[in-house]
Automatic annotation (TrEMBL):
Keywords: Nucleus, Phosphoprotein, Repeat, rRNA processing, WD repeat
Subunit structure: Part of the small subunit (SSU) processome, composed of more than 70 proteins and the RNA chaperone small nucleolar RNA (snoRNA) U3.
Record region (Disordered): 1-67
Stated name of the protein: U3 small nucleolar RNA-associated protein 18 homolog
GN (gene name): UTP18
Organism, scientific name: Bos indicus x Bos taurus
Keyword match Nucleotide-binding: no
Length: 564
């Protein structure tokens, strides 16, 4: 089959406007075209081939005709591609053709070369993608640094930062001369403060930390961690300051309501039981569940308005005194018997009201009149000895080890006595106190809290109370404005409860050791606390109870503590 040039192509090749170089190139292409009849016939420069037999012609017809047809189609395609390209480039300006030669090179004769050039960046990108992350990071570190276009003189001037007018910066000053620091020095100082607070540079802040095999193991552990659910964050062991998470529970004595004043509220030292006693002559025991608090038992004492009731250290007995009687009642919880103690040998007090039980359960301390403190044996209820202070006894308490007695007088003085020798170890004036009203010691033997008539609670260190003649309080709590009648430390020595029976809602919870008051207690809008006369914490600080003059034993659940 003979290929013919279309008329449009003849008109194109005969175009007089075509440049002479392109016209010569087109003529050469036309001359080099191989006609199919010459290839199929005889060879160039040789005699004609001998005709083959009919069977041979049939067998050889397809192998000879196939390459001829393919070559003709390829030549026709190249010719049409060249014609189209020349038509497109004919109208291009010289500037555009020059730009193409600069970008793509002179590839008019060989378009495959252009395709190969365009294919090189793709291969390069693929090779770059195979590089490791470490090599990429190393290449990024050595990128060429560009020079700035201009330099500003003001940038070279070192700007100074004022350290005096900012309270956070003022704490970072090492001496008075550092009233101003440069930005670089301030940044360095901030880094030092951060590292001091963190105990060094944390792992996540270390620069140029390369990946190690242990990192792969940690990643596998993290993957395992993410494959299961659960509570992975445990609560802090120490109580945070600011806001105390708590919930208002059902009143402890809800199953035995009364309108008489609650004089004593105390949790049992070993069982989940709370005792409520008041001026209605009854001592009641309730099971603590925070919801209904079912009543266990009530003990009625005829004509005996209870001034104070207290569990023994082992929780087997309940001791109670009245507002106008010298009888001391002892209720044996195991035997279920009520034992009245009418007279203590050697004790001449007409009325027995305020008393304290030592933490180890060995001693009973009775506050007498005329400044006397009477020490009794808890087991036999017999008098061991007496101690005398100047003035009236306002309050007394044992130390956590039961070896010392702290007594607050009506003159604003604090006395420290030794239990075994019954000698006065120290005596000091409670700072700012005209006369004392309450005193308490912490379970860990660290603090002594003294409440005065002016609403101030001074917190002392127990060691300073023993060794110094004029100890200074660690902190003075001034959140109350009337006399502090009740003081109670929680078992973990993280909370100090202070209250005044002379003003409604006058109760506060102080966080230790920050000595700050929890801001969310009491809730001022509700005003359901009223006048508080007694307070206590459960053995593991899970509950907090208060008794008011309306006959209600309020109870709260402290969520920070998981146990009763």
């Amino acid at each position: 089959m003979r290929s013919e040039i279309p008329r449009e192509g003849l008109r194109f090749f005969s175009n007089p406007k075509m440049p002479p170089e392109r016209r010569r190139r087109v003529r050469q292409d036309r001359k080099t075209q191989v006609r199919p009849d010459r290839r199929a016939g005889a060879q160039r420069g040789g005699p004609p081939r001998k005709a083959a037999s009919s069977c041979q012609q049939k067998s050889l017809a397809w192998p000879r005709a196939a390459p001829a047809a393919i070559s003709v189609e390829a030549e026709e395609e190249n010719r049409l591609r060249l014609r189209n390209r020349l038509m497109l480039e004919e109208d291009k300006p010289a500037a555009e053709r020059c730009l193409e030669e600069l970008v793509f090179g002179d590839v008019e004769d060989d378009e495959d070369a252009l395709l190969r050039r365009l294919r090189v960046p793709l291969v390069q990108v693929q090779e770059d993608s195979d590089d490791s992350e470490v090599e990429k990071e190393a290449k990024d570190n050595f990128l060429p640094q560009k020079k700035p276009v201009w330099l500003d003189e003001e940038d070279e001037d070192e700007e100074m930062v004022d350290m005096m007018n900012n309270r956070f910066r003022k704490d970072m000053m090492k001496n008075a001369s550092e009233n101003q620091l440069s930005k670089d020095e301030l940044q360095k100082r901030l880094k030092e403060e951060f590292q001091h607070a963190m105990g060094g540079v944390p792992a996540w802040a270390e620069a140029n930390k390369w990946k190690t095999p242990s990192d792969d193991e940690s990643e596998e552990e993290e993957d395992d961690l993410l494959q299961r659910t659960g509570n992975f964050i445990s609560t802090s062991t120490s109580l945070p300051k600011g806001i105390l998470k708590m919930k208002n529970c059902q009143h402890a004595n809800a199953e035995r309501p009364t309108t008489a004043r609650i004089s004593s509220v105390q949790f049992h030292p070993r069982a989940q039981v709370v005792m409520v006693a008041g001026l209605d002559n009854a001592v009641s025991l309730f099971q603590v569940d925070g919801k209904t608090n079912p009543k266990i038992q009530s003990i009625y004492l005829e004509k005996f308005p209870i001034f104070k009731a207290c569990f023994s250290a082992n929780g087997e007995e309940v001791l109670a005194t009245s507002t106008h009687s010298k009888i001391l009642y002892v209720y044996d919880m195991l035997a279920g018997k009520l034992i009245p103690v009418h007279q203590v040998r050697g004790l001449k007090e007409k009325i027995v009201r305020s008393f304290e039980i030592s933490p180890d359960g060995s001693f009973l301390l009775i506050n007498g009149v005329a400044g006397y403190l009477h020490l009794l044996s808890m087991k036999t209820k017999e008098l061991i000895g007496s101690m005398k202070i100047n003035g009236r006894i306002a309050a007394s308490t044992f130390s956590s080890d039961s070896k010392k007695v702290y007594a607050s007088s009506g003159d604003g003085e604090v006395y420290v006595w030794d239990v075994n020798s019954r000698k006065c170890l120290n005596r000091f004036v409670d700072e700012g106190s005209l006369y004392g009203l309450s005193i308490a010691t912490s379970r860990n033997g660290q603090y002594v809290a003294c409440g005065s008539n002016c609403g101030v609670v001074n917190i002392y260190n127990q060691d300073s109370c023993l060794q110094e003649t004029n100890p200074k309080p660690i902190k003075a709590i001034m959140n109350l404005v009337t006399g502090v009648t009740s003081l109670t430390f929680n078992p973990t020595t993280e909370i100090l409860a202070i209250a005044s029976a002379n003003m409604k809602e006058a109760v506060r919870l102080v966080h230790l050791p920050s000595f700050t008051v929890f801001s969310n207690f009491p809730v001022v809008k509700k005003k359901n606390i009223s006048l508080i006369h007694t307070m206590d914490f459960s053995p593991r600080s899970g509950y907090f109870a208060l008794g008011n003059e309306k006959g209600k034993a309020l109870m709260y659940r402290l969520h920070h503590y998981s146990d009763f």
